[in-house]
Amino acid sequence: MIAALAIATFAWLPSPGKAFDFNDVAARAEKLAAATYQSDDNKIPAALKALNYDQYRDIRFQPDKALWRDRKLPFELMFFHVGGYFTAPVHINEIDETGAHPIRFDRKAFNYGPVTGLTPREEDSWGDVGFAGFRIHYPLNNAGYKDELAVFLGASYFRALGSGQRYGLSARGLAIDTVGAQGEEFPRFKEFWIERPAVDAKSLTLYALLDSPSATGAYRIVMTPGSETTMDVQARLFLRKPVATLGIAPLTSMYQYGENQPLSQPMGQPGSGNFRPEVHDSDGLSIQTGDGEWIWRPLVNPQAPLTTSFSMSEVRGFGLMQRDRSFSNYEDLEARYDLRPSAWVEPIGKWGPGRIELLQLPTPDETNDNIVAYWVPQTLPAPGKPLDLADATRAVDASPS
Question: Which of 134, 255, 317, 378 is most buried, by the most CB atoms less than 10 A from its CB?
Answer without folding.
Answer: 255
